[in-house]
Specification:
Blueprint lengths: L12 H10 L12 H14 L19 E4 L16 E4 L1 H7 L29 H4 E4 L3 E4 L2 H9 L4 H14 L3 H11 L2 H19 L2
Antiparallel strand pairs: 1-2, 3-4
The structure holds zinc ion.
The site of zinc ion has 8 residues, from helix 3.
Length: about 210
């Protein structure tokens, strides 16, 4: 699986028509007439992004407001690219809110960029995430180059260490069974096998000889 989006969403002719008719400023993004297009975008990008946030790489949720369509070049500053599909990627609401409308370009543009050269953060369509950011222990983000450092800063990825710590603390207060289930997620194959063997033994005891 590539670490960047290889092909942007392809708008259909009828979707293009809806955009032509109803879009004039970035505020129109919220219009209900675009809901169908957004749904198609999300479904398409979930697959292309392996259902991961383009900035923190955490799993994207399925509930209301659990996933955002992120405008890589902020739509309030670069209005004409609001529906430019290369400018769109899925992010978690935490990263989207943290990034806000911060500047992401080195120098002004007229046309949408074709490479990541003029962009100071990791661009989901142009840049390979792993070349710029390494994630340690699931929540510690290391910038490997300037783009990586700037992405961590703009999206406040350092916040996730605290988020994971809270989650772990909450887990340690929960039932032993829940803790066991959680431990199994990250257990080694040997430990998983050990668990299966012990469960078999226990099941046999329940069932009797
Ligand atoms: Zn995120």
């Amino acid at each position: 699986m590539s670490s960047r989006i290889l092909e942007a969403y392809q708008l259909t002719a009828s979707e293009k028509k809806i955009i032509d008719t109803h879009f004039s400023t970035h505020k129109d993004w919220e219009k209900s007439v675009f809901e169908g297009i957004k749904e198609n975008l999300v479904n398409d990008l979930r697959i292309k992004q392996n259902n991961k946030c383009c900035y923190c790489r955490n799993e994207l949720g399925y509930d209301i407001k659990a996933v955002d369509i992120e405008h890589i070049l902020p739509k309030s500053k670069y209005e004409k690219f609001t529906f430019h599909t290369k400018n769109l990627a899925l992010s978690c609401p935490g990263c989207n809110t943290s990034k806000g409308s911060k500047e992401v370009l080195k120098s002004p543009i007229k046309k949408y960029p074709r490479t990541g050269t003029n962009i100071i953060i990791v661009h989901a369509h142009f840049d390979n995430y792993e070349s710029s950011i390494e994630i340690h222990s699931g929540s510690i983000y290391e910038g490997l180059d300037e783009k990586g450092c700037e992405t961590i800063k703009q999206c406040k990825l350092y916040r996730l260490k605290r988020v994971h710590k809270k989650a772990r603390k909450n887990l340690s207060n929960s039932s032993p069974i829940q803790q066991l289930v959680e431990s199994l997620r990250t257990a080694s194959d040997a430990d998983k096998q050990l668990f299966i063997n012990q469960m078999r033994e226990m099941t046999n005891q329940f069932q009797g000889p």
